[in-house]
């Protein structure tokens, strides 16, 4: 790990009210990014030139993106963000892609801007990767503290672990497809601990048991997509990406460990009271200001090689996840 982790620990922590505003702004930026990506990909779908397999994959990803946008908007509503603000941010994101896409020689096929597309996909997959780790950390903590009553479902636990691993693979391939350098990657991931603290303090830790289980179950069932996303150049013989694999995100186990550490840090702070969320009219100015900035990538530390001790949760050892049934 580079110095970014130490720097993060020495950064003054924002107060509970400020973290709520920061999380709301982050949620709105996510909606903006999803709306923009959906509009861009819908507009760039060529009428001809794609094989049947390419078209099916493209449309499936487009449908999945629309579902993620709907879910993100619902999360924002339940967190107290006014529907008018959500609609404005969604429209802003969709309208922002009307400008002609930047074209670069050697990076175009069928008129598609692959670099922008992969950058947008990366933001979405990192978002889901963090939230899967957050839900897993919360579930494990509630089991250990006697706040979990669902029985074990090892099949679902194994599927969740496979989906989490698939997210890791997708983030890895997308990061390398965008030509991200190790230095850029480390900086990108350097804010993950604070991001996870916000998730716990404002959302996941406020969920009741049924909500945690429902959100987790959604990620266990939901297909994260192929390990190698569409339009990433691959070797015709091996099927492996041709882009050099120079950066790797934190492994699933490290993400879970980071989320659990963030959860413990959240418990050590004073409880966020209703007073901090009561005056959304005052907070909206801060939210709007934050939304005007470019979407920041979620992050913590990236390494140039996978962790040697990388392992996924083991259901038989009590590390796996439970589901309904």
Give your account of this protein's structure.
- The chain is an all-alpha fold.
- The protein has one domain.
- The protein contains 11 helices and 2 strands, in the order H-H-H-H-E-E-H-H-H-H-H-H-H.
- Strands 1-2 form a two-stranded antiparallel ribbon.
Give the SSE map:
Layout: H1 4-10, H2 16-44, H3 52-78, H4 83-95, E1 108-109, E2 112-113, H5 114-144, H6 154-177, H7 182-189, H8 192-202, H9 209-221, H10 252-267, H11 280-291
Antiparallel strand pairs: 1-2
Approximately how much helix is present in the residues?
55-70%
The coarse overall form would be globular
Mean pLDDT across residues: 71
- Rg estimate, integer Å: 20 Å
Work out the count of structural domains.
1
SSE arrangement, N to C: HHHHEEHHHHHHH
Q: Count of DSSP helices?
A: 11
Q: DSSP strand (E) fraction?
A: under 5%
